[in-house]
Amino acid sequence: MQVRDYILNYLVSQGVKHVFLVTGGAIAFIVDAFSKRKDIRYVCVAHEQAGAMMADAYSRMGPGYAATMVTSGPGATNLITGICCSWFDSIPTIHISGQVNTYEQKKKSKVRQVGFQETDIVNIVRPITKFAAQLDSTDNIRFLLEKATYLAKSGRPGPVLVDIPMNFQRAEIEPKKLKKFVPPSKKEYEDTGTKLMEKVTKTVEYFKKSKRPVLLVGGGVMLANAQKEIRELIEELGFPVVSSWSGYDTVHRGHRLYLGAQGVYGERAANFAVQNSDMLIAIGSRLDTRQTGGKPQTYARESKVIMVDIDKAELDKRRGLTPALTIQTDAKEFITTLLKNLKKFKKPNISPWIKLCREWKKKYPVVLPEYSRDKKFVNPYVFIKTLSKLLGSKAVIVPDDGGHLTWTMQAFEIKKGQRLFSAYGNSPMGYAFPASIGASIALGKKEVICIDGDGSFQMNIQEIQTMVYQKLPVKVFIINNYGYGIIKQFQELYLGSRYEATGKGYSAPDFIKVGKAYGVKTVLIKHNTELSKKIKEVLRHKGPVICDVRIYPLQKLIPKLEFGKPIEDLSPVLPRDEFRKNMLVKTMEEIQVNPKKINEIN
């Protein structure tokens, strides 16, 4: 058997059915091996970056995962942005790069390059992968692949890369004699067994004393396949629930205890609940600055924060926020252990707290009635809310980066059974469209809703051809504000409304003409009154659609946090009397923004 055939056999054994690739000289031998296969197929993409994003989204759909294959040099380096998406969001993906022959490599030489397109991709991607290595002997191919795929899914998941020199690809091997990889017996997280039980018992003790508890659901819950368990926990606890963006599709919008996503672009009700809590249990959330705000010492400042995460480094970081208890374990393992302990637990009476949280939710909706009265443009909040009402319970929604991501996360009313995700950590422009293609292929060419922007869609616009060739029913909604809207708002706040490189100097094509050039059905929406009719037209069509949704060029993100403020004080700011009535803890004006004093409160 040749190495190239062994690689495909191994990928199939791991459940890989699709490989996203752009061929090239250094990978051509492996690609040629597909000619003998029916159990694994490749998908040709127009750009390697898009291929990595497709693989990322494919893997999010689960339970299997996808791979990419690229040539050496520029083919491999083009993967980097997509690899970063998987790295920051903990998504297992496999990347196979071709490399120049071993006898053409510079090795330790100080020259920059020997072989054509030789690039040390392994050392370039090491900081953004769980494992990256070059095959140094054909006898090690089994060991390398087994180690890579084990690490991709163990502990905190992530991407891996294996670099295969050309002269090894067609080399003959004897599979039975190949060296095996033996996984370590010890788990990658510390808190298991008795140690976990002790910390869970301590958590329950905090519950008993709490009058204003909040449960924060993060993306780690979905990664641990603990959706069923977290829903059971929510019912058992009876606490108000908030989510991070990556945990947004874990709890449906209509749940009586759910207050929305919290953070810099969070909902007022969710932020007020977190900031007024006396106990916050964060499961599978790393509590990054998009959640805590730029001054983490102001976050949940009078609360006992219990942080559950599989990554010790996330628990050990100190940026001004010091948890009362850290638990390093898998989210599912923690939740199941906690549920067992709660059977003996007498719930405290927190009905006044739940009532207050519900009042906040009712009083501070994101989508206001006046938004529908705009007669010149489509209001993005009204568009997102209308779209969410028209989508079924099995819909998959992929928003991109920027303003349209924020409008989606603030206004989309997630239903039970729906999936909604983006590349939240890396958040690159250009993710949503190729990700929608990858998700559709993972689901057997089912419909996927892509929510894009006029700027971000252009980043991977070439993949329209991939969508057309693969006959994918991807519905692309381009929220078109004729520029980079989220940066325009930043320029208004801090740069004297000088729209350098966002409105001035920026341009976009006529997306209707672009779609027609590829033979794709197109729809234009210019007014709020057209929304329901035109969205239904898009959704009725069996094939791909590009829909251009025209909004006001200076449309704001409302609410949002201004720099330096705590997350309870979103802009547009509330009247000070009203704001203070909503605060059960000391406001930052009362504390006078003294980090030392804040830390003493914790």
UniProtKB/TrEMBL annotation:
What region holds the Thiamine pyrophosphate enzyme N-terminal TPP-binding domain? 1-122
GO CC terms for this protein?
acetolactate synthase complex
Q: Indicate yes or no for the key word Zinc.
A: no
Q: Which GO terms describe its biological process?
A: isoleucine biosynthetic process; L-valine biosynthetic process
Q: Name one Pfam family in it.
A: TPP_enzyme_M
Q: Which UniProt keywords apply?
A: Thiamine pyrophosphate
The record, for CDD domains, names: TPP_PYR_POX_like
Q: Name the domain of life.
A: Bacteria
Keyword Cell cycle tagged: no
Q: Where is the Thiamine pyrophosphate enzyme central domain?
A: 201-338
UniProt domain Thiamine pyrophosphate enzyme TPP-binding: residue ranges:
402-549
The entry's family comment says:
Belongs to the TPP enzyme family.
> How is this protein named in the record?
Acetolactate synthase
**What lineage is this protein's organism placed in?**
Bacteria, Candidatus Roizmaniibacteriota
